[in-house]
Amino acid sequence: MELLTRIIGNNLCIAHFCLSYSEAISLYKKVQIECDELDVEDEFIKAIEVEFLNDALIDRDLICVSLKEIKLFNDITQKRSIIGVARFLILPDYVNLTLPVSIPNSYENQVLEKQNDVLKNFRLCLLNNDYATLEDVDIVDMDCVVRYDLRFIIDGEIIAVYDNQILEMYNDEPLQPQRFVGAKIGDAVAISDVEGVVTDFLIQKIQKKIPFNETTPIELLKEKGFVSYQDLLNKYQRAYNQITKIEMYIDYIVDFVFENAKIEFDEQIEEFYKSIDYFVYDKEFDLEESEEKRQNLLKKSYIFDLLAKMVELKDPTLLKREIDIVIDDFRNYYLNDRYDFYDLKIYSIKNRIFRYLKKEGIFY
Q1: Span 227-231, average pLDDT
Q2: pLDDT, tens digit (0-9, with 9 covering 90-100), for 46-75
Q3: Which 3 state secondary structure label does DSSP give 357?
Q4: Which of 46, 157, 298, 324 measures 20 to 30 Å from 271, CA to CA?
Q5: What is the DSSP string of 319-352?
Q6: Residues forming a β-bridge with 15
Q7: CA-wise closest residue to 185 among 139, 151, 225, 230
Q8: How many separate helices (H) and strands (E) can be counted in the chain?
Q9: Around Cβ 193, how many Cβ atoms within 10 Å?
């Protein structure tokens, strides 16, 4: 691989690269074998980063602290060298991350309060992931699954019907499920009346979801991979408490650094984080809030990336030692294998930071 880099501002790096056709086609064929056809192009870009780009940057003493935004200007079908560009942030020449010496008792109490919600969240998680049995009932409540026909009516005449729709009362907040509570089979619940077009739900069937509990047959629990209800509860509770603690502790550390450390956050860094959709704290942003808050959240994402790189450089084996535990935590927390890879990646990094800071005595 040939590589040409330039630094803009304090630590935004633009890296132009060229991969020979022989290097590219060999890597592309390897990717084709290892992944689904629909994912080949994305996985090929990731493979270029892992197999070539990362080592080339290390050879130039460039330490990446952020996601790499990579674009290719041509594809493998053209049977010539692959040309592309990567944008990313590198570790600045000097950065001082001022860390707390401990976590205040008041914040520890907030963590415990959040952990006390475990049973409420456990019940909702059981319902959302079909760790439940269905029982026919006559009246809708917030634990029900409702089958209905969606109807559009003008002047009392039905003009369109979409039958056999499903409403999960515990999981369909946009539909304001509270309005269905108390309804019975055959009831028509009006949803809207816009310019003379009435929309309603004609209820056809009501089933109550009974979450798994101490009386659930052992065969149903074993189908889900648990030896007993207590086994299910214990694994969920452990995962919930661990993930809650790590999430809240790392948020405290990031906030502390944000308030106490002098972190240079120039226009190039800000624009970089605005241009990508992979960063931690922008999820908290409300469009109605100020641009200043948006900038602060972007800066916290940068601080998080700096913390992650600091820990990685000090103990590069830590993530590998913990990855199986992290995956088990996620499976038990979500009670399925359909969790978001982005969330898993972020949590694995937070877990790494947490383990390191615990070893350093900040967490107990």
Answers
A1: 95
A2: 999 989 999 999 899 999 998 899 999 998
A3: helix
A4: 46
A5: HHHHHHHHHHHHHHHHTSS---HHHHHHHHHHHH
A6: 5, 86
A7: 139
A8: 11, 9
A9: 11
For the record, the structure tokens of 90 come out as 């590198």
**pLDDT (0 to 100) of residue 314:** 84
Q: What is the DSSP string of 29-46?
A: HHHHHHS-GGGHHHHHHH
Q: Give the model's pLDDT for residue 286.
A: 57
Question: For residue 303, is pLDDT > 80?
Answer: yes
Enter the tokens of residue 157: 């005449």
Select from 236, 296, 240, 300 the least CA-distant residue to 111.
Answer: 240
Whether 323 has a pLDDT exceeding 90, the answer reads: no
Residue type at position 111: V
| Cβ contacts of 292-300, under 8 Å, gap ≥ 24 | 295/270, 296/258, 298/265, 298/270, 298/273, 298/274, 299/258, 299/263, 299/265, 299/270, 300/254, 300/255, 300/258
Angle at 7 between CA 278 and CA 15, to 5 degrees: 65
- CA dist 353 → 261, 262, 315 (Å): 18, 20, 10
pLDDT tens sequence across 88-102: 999 888 888 888 888
Cα 353–chain centre separation: 17
Model pTM score: 0.79
Residues present in the chain in total? 364
Q: Collapsing DSSP states into helix, strand and coil, what is residue 311?
A: helix
| Axis-axis angle for helices 267-275, 291-314 (nearest 10) | 90
